[in-house]
Amino acid sequence: MCVIKTSLRYNSNSDQLADAFIQGAKESGNSVEEISLKDKNIAFCKGCLACLKSGECVIRDDANSITEQIKQADVIVWATPIYYYEKSGQMKVMIDRANSLYETDYQFRDVYLLSTAAENEDGVDHRAINGLKGWVACYPKSHFVGSVFAGGVDESNTIKDHPALKKAYEIGKAIQ
């Protein structure tokens, strides 16, 4: 299992949501690789499509090793803050840079989204979910399993007593 934290804030709400998921998954005996995009050097995709021929991106930065971890994992969990009703820019850039997986023997089957936002109304996470479903649709052996959204959290640690933490923990714990 690979949990990718995309927030650039330290001790962010989406990281804490991911930590709850990880705790549940580990308690069920799952092996979890945790990746934070914080302090990673990840350039924008150039759209050259050389990765489809070589199996890896021609840009030499941290995205290549992250992509390899994604390729080897059976479960992928993306954790992101929602900005302007969409996933974080760094999550989108990492998804784009993982294009080299398209024609490979990737292992991931189940994909989840964990997200947080200051806004708390219904539908805040719909664009992020649809964007991730678009990525998943490109990988026919995988499927989008579900999401956990924590709204009404903006400052660090405002997620502290949010019910989404328990939900993320329970979903992580249910993975076998």
Automatic annotation (TrEMBL):
Keywords: Flavoprotein, FMN. The keyword DNA repair does not apply. One of its GO terms (molecular function) is oxidoreductase activity. It comes from the Bacteria. Residues 3-137 form the NADPH-dependent FMN reductase-like domain. It holds the Pfam family FMN_red. SUPFAM superfamilies: Flavoproteins. PANTHER family: IRON-SULFUR FLAVOPROTEIN, NAD(P)H-DEPENDENT FMN-CONTAINING OXIDOREDUCTASE YWQN-RELATED. This is NADPH-dependent FMN reductase. It comes from Faecalibacillus faecis.
